[in-house]
Predict the structure.
Amino acid sequence: MGMIGQHLLNGLMQGTIYGLVAMGFTIFFGVMNVIKFSHGDVLTLGAFGGLVAVWAANALGLSVPLQFIVALCVAMALTAVVGAGISHFLIMPLRNAPPLNMLLMTMMVGTAIREAIRLFFPNGTNPQRFPELLPAGGFNIGPSFFRTDAIILIIAGAASIGAVYWIINHSKFGLAMRAVAEDTETARVMGINFGRIIPLTFALGSITAGFAGMIYALYYSEINYSMGLLLAVIGFTAAIVGGLGNIWGAIIGGYLFAGLQTFVVAAMPSMSDYKNVFAFVLIIVLITWRPTGLLAERGSERV
Amino acid sequence: MTPTSRTLVRVPVWPLFVAVAFAAVALTALVLIENQKLLGAALAITAAVCFCAARFGGVAATEVAASENPWLLRGLITVASLAVIFVLRDDNFGLLMLATVLIYATICLGLTVQMGYAGLTNFAAAAFAGTGGYTAAMLGQQGGLPDALVLVCGGLVAVFIGSLLILPVLRTRGHYGALTTMAFGVMFNVFLDANDFFGGPQGLKLPGINLFGWDFTNDIHIFGLVLSSYVNYVILTGILTALAMIFVGLLDRSWVGVWFDVVRLDETAASVFGLKIAYWKVLAFTIGNFLAGLMGAVYAKMTGFIAPANFTFGDSLVMVSIVILGGIGNRWGVLPAALIVVLLPEKLQFIQEYRLIFYAVLVIAILTMRPDGLVARRVRKLHTEASA
Amino acid sequence: MGTISKRGLAALAVASVLPLAFGSFSAAFAKDKVKIAFVGPLTGAISPHGIGGRNSAELAVKLMNAEPSTKYEYELVVLDDECKPNVGVQVVTKIASDRSIIAAIPHYCSATAIATVDIFNRFKMPMVVWAAVLPEITYAKKYPEVHRVSGILIGQNRIGAQFMKARGYKKFVSFADSTDYGKSMNKYFTQFTLENGNEILGSFSVPPDQQDLSAELTKIKELNPEVIYFGGLTPLGARLRTQMAKFGINAQLEGNSGIMGDAFVNAAGPELAEGTLTFFDSPPLSKMPGGKMFSDAYKAAGYSEPPEAYGPFAYVATRLVMETIEKVGPDRAKVTTDLGDVKDRPSIVGPVTFDDHGQNITPLTTSYVVQDGKWVVWEESEYVSGKRKLKNLP
């Protein structure tokens, strides 16, 4: 029972990652009514980009904190560009296609990214070791060991979630974004530059993936080409549970899923491999009870 | 007085003969050829012929001839299939691939009923197939049950598991519905991986099929020829696929099919007209899951092995794309689509490494350029025969 | 109508015989082609081992084909089993049902091998396993087609348990993967450790590709063992070592033959890998009878990847198969029979003798420790002299 602190920390860490991914999903859905399933693989791309940046920075002899900053910037820039590119070239032209086609296509885009990493990154099929950029070690509170890097990452993750939330709800760009999400036609009539807002929105959503990818890489010190797939499914789940299109819902959904996993692990340690099973079962139950998510999606259907 | 079409216009049947013969020859060639260059040439020729046929009305003529002479079509297909089996009688692996294609096609037929007819999104087709496979494995370990029953049980267990998902599937729509089946599929995989009772990641071994006393691991000795034991499986899957096609076709042409369409196209209007939406959706879901479970059991027994890694979310995705590639809602489309998706990667050695990325790019291309699929679904024609 | 003169007849006779003579002349130069298959994990996290094995097998074929006195020309068909049982079943079905492939040299991963043994027997294809160490592969059933040149994991666990007792360790935790391989490792580890009078505080079993080990490591931290025994393959082992350090768990890591090789040291990093112990059924390459010849030939062939721990065994298995085919011809049944009679066959790893289950009974277990990023024989390391210390020594 004294390990509660440990479990809490693990759960918060996972929840932050899931929350970031879920936020991306919800942003894409809110604005373009599209589930961009390649989100998870864009995350992987960001992590690998960060890895290459660290190698380069290391070769140039930069100090460790500087390497960290460079890696983070590269990851976020890469994911922003790729995310915006996918939206511009593949999603926008097809925005009137049946939603199933769109979903399938984004899944395939994700597969293509994943396979490209696997095939073209040197030794892509093997897990890659991510260098330690954060201070190692930690401190003990009771029987629980609090890793310093975990604390830093949780704080950074929460800060980024807060930043994105602030951008969406309190900045002019965010206002434009929400206007387009609410009613595209009226927004354009009101003078919002549709052609600029959309790519920027997708870029913002994808940046969360870049950040989440870096957090993952730094926490586990290991990345591999398929790490994005399960994260995408969980992130999507979290976004849905919270209610698609609702930022708070996505964040809550992410921490909720992590909480479910942690609960299973803490209460029944011998059944820890089942943590995902329980979590998904509970999600299915939740969805049955509230088919449009916990924080209901604001929307109506034309009959 | 309006004359019926049957008496006045004589529909030429030779397109039917040509089409079936061409399909049989192309299939045999693609399975047999090992030489990569020759294979590439054969593929190009096949594609060119298909394209020309579509352009110059050959496909339309074949369809008309087929719909007017269903029994002739069935007879031709049977003869052609026997010919193909005869030519391939020694090629163990080729026969195995053929049987796999048929299994995938039938599972996707079930998926067509769910997605193409009733409009349900199912991202867990592979998981339902896996349910059937694991049922066969567990029953095989217990022993005692005749194999025909084992296969049917595979289908029934899949239906049962599907019934657990009925409530979420009914209450959710669109993306939320996709989530339900997706979550189930992932959960199924994780559960089997973690669980030792079902073999865990190591998987389980299964005995081959022994149907009504005939052991499928025996080679067939007939008329002095020796046919590889895999011919047994090809014949079984062929018969099952044919039955499934006939059944689904009947479904489509009947009033059940019309009501499926209404439910899919406009739920609100359907309920306004008094249709019990839930009932029809459950029926479609059940039919699809039964087919998936049945064929999953056949697949498991044929390969003699089952593991969670055979039925991942990725495999479900492949099945959904077969349905879309073939033209969603067109049951004939799943056959060439399954052939392309299952057979080609095995044969084209040079893309072995790259087959997934090649496949992903192909699907993206089809979705952007030809979203109706290879063989688009024809608009329903309701025959109204005026009484004289 | 004229008659053919005697001269004409003679000329005709010579003319008809000449092509035959030429034909047999050239036939003496063209050797018949024989196909054999190599199966290993060429993609995925275990690929360093699979690629090392493949290179070694290719080397064996190349050297054999270069010998002019051989009757046949060998072609190596290479297949990737991705270290997954279901993929293994697929590729083995493919080669076993292809009658033009005479024999196979399969599998690094035990989980894959145990799934495919029945297929080899069903299609009567002789095979010689080059790395998988699970005992059940050769001992669960008595299949005449199944042979193995590498050792089985019972020996390494017995030696390992004695070794740890000799160092004075008492409290252990076992961490294994949930495949048959990990389960078997855990079984024998438990058996021998308890026999030696030591205590096992807990056992953990995880699927081999599980990413997050926090739950298990949290529990292990609570148990506070002196040694963590690892029964699994390199990727999970490296992950365990990395995450162990993050949780501040300072236990000694006792490994198995699955983490032997450069791949583990590269994946975990030399600092973290330092001091890890393992037990492997073979002396190092430099001490093998044919070790120098092998490493020279390997280097000369220009392979960029190292042969890894089991490369020499892949070489031996391939060479054995080819020698047998030379002796009895490309016939599956004859090869199977002849492989059953292998006794004291010389090879680069020493004499090979198959027992009645096809298992090579000669390998000896050696203890290794990681020192400065390389696996070093224990007795020659600085640990035995006391210059460096293992962790948590009581």
